[in-house]
Amino acid sequence: MKEITIIFILFFTINLFSQKDTIAINKLKEVIVNGKRNVEKKRIATKELKIGVKEQTKNPINLTNLLRYNSPIAFRDYGNGGVSTARFRGTSASNTLVLWNGIPINAVGSGQTDFNSLSASLNDNIIVQSGGNSTEYGSGAIGGTVHLNDELLFKNHQKFQLFTSYGSYNTSSNFFKSSVGTDKWSIKLASTFNYSDNDYTYIDERYKDDYGNLLTNENGKYKNYGINFVIGYKFTPTNTLSFYSTAYYGNRFFSNGFPNPSASSERNEDFNERNLLQWKYAFSSQFKQELSLAYLTQKYRYYRNKNVENFEFGKSKNIFINHSLTCRLSNVLSFEYKTIYENINGSSSDIGTEIRNSVAFVGSIKYQPIEKLVTNAQVRREINSEFDIPLSLFVGGEYELTEALQFFANFSTNYRVPTYNEMYWPVVGNLNLIPENSKQGELGVSLKNENINITSTLFYIYINDKILWLPTGGSNLWRPRNVGDVVNKGVETYVSFKKEIGEHIVDFSSNYTFTLAENIETRKVLPFAPKHLLNFNVGYDYKRFNFFIQSLYQSSVYTNPTNSKTYSIKSVHVQNLGATFKLSTKQTKFPTVGFTLNNIFNEVYYFSNLRPMPGINFNINLNYKF
Questions:
Q1: Residue 479 Cα distances to 111, 468, 518, angstroms
Q2: Three-class SS of residue 221?
Q3: pTM
Q4: What is the pLDDT of residues 423-433, one digit of tens each?
């Protein structure tokens, strides 16, 4: 409790002196602030990547494909449309934390996020933040975080967007977005509907039926619906109340893959609801607060036989409260204090009901000793009803050598608590598990000018008490256990380039990650951790015409802890090609017509054993903004 007492003393000290005038020796450079739009603050000394509407319309089907071609994250898919989990910097799926408007939404049971059950189009932007962030967001933020954000615009406006697409395997993706507002009100409504028969041909010539025909992805169809509603009201320029709500329903059939896809009869339903009430109030230019109250529910129904009504279930209810106070003592020094409470109530047909409570106290200081150097230090102390959570720290700094060249570095300690499945699953659950904890550091450089942006980061992650599912006593029974230490190290690089010459515009963006992820005890590479991951997008615009190419390379991966080459997955090389044409003129508004050809070289590729991905396929779309 000593750390908690120190944080409370720090908080009350800030309150005591926040009324005093302070004269700063060093002054910040001029910063233009858009007070009409609520935008998430960038964390000091970390790399983040923003993905907007332009990228969403190129990969509209699901969040997996959107991030796969536009971020440094590797994904493991159980076939097209199946369960999809992230591998950020070679860490496990439960080490990537997904947040909706700042609220963690990873599944209670697995601690993971199925990215194929998240819409790629409902939110205004998606931010991918690399590296540890447990001091800010808690358990699971070790490899990185993915932020699904909605923005409220407080000015007179009316914006509408309708997008619809149709493609191979009777696949369709559709969404509608609307935003209206004044300087007092802002209202947004969005909805999405996606479906597919997903009955693509397995083009791997090694597998055929008794008549010599290629097999088909049977029992792979899916459909999902989503709706998003946001409303905000400004009582005064410093007093805003906002409400965010979203709901999702998904119905998926799970294909069996090779060697007998017709044997599968599984089906799964997902029901997710998320609600957030947020109040922002500034007492003065120096002192402000923010209060967030969230209530989230997740449910699933798993049918072993799609033709019967019997199912297994899992459900959870989360209550999340976050209260923050920020005090800006001067132009170079500011403090922030947060109190975060979370209640998790989870149950399933296999586990029963388990309740977990936690309260966290977070203190942060930002200091700019000279004009070109900004530093940030943060500490988090969490009390959990089930675990002894280690103290989390973050220390980082950015130094601007020139206007174009910047260096940054950070050190952090992070953690992940065991999930419900790891602890309570019948027979194999392990009640003796303890939290994973990590020590990690980054050193990066960023070069930016009018046309080019290059950011490269060296990273090192040392995880103690890593939780892995391993076979027990030579049997086929796998149980989770703390295996000791693992190390993830490498380099992550982002490059973007844009050049305008008259009416010609060329743009290029790319993510490359080199990762070595190793279990120190066994000297084996961690499963599903590619050494090389590269994607790039090339675009060319001329008047109303746009042409683009997407490419993905992922090196081979092991699929088990023993690094057996027999079960490894070969490297992936996939390219997509697309074009759009704006029917609108200066006098009229019409839709933009688009066409995409995926996997243009008809490559055979896998992200999970025996579950091949589609061959060459097409998609046509209409995108209408009015």
A1: 16, 8, 20
A2: coil
A3: 0.92
A4: 999 999 999 99
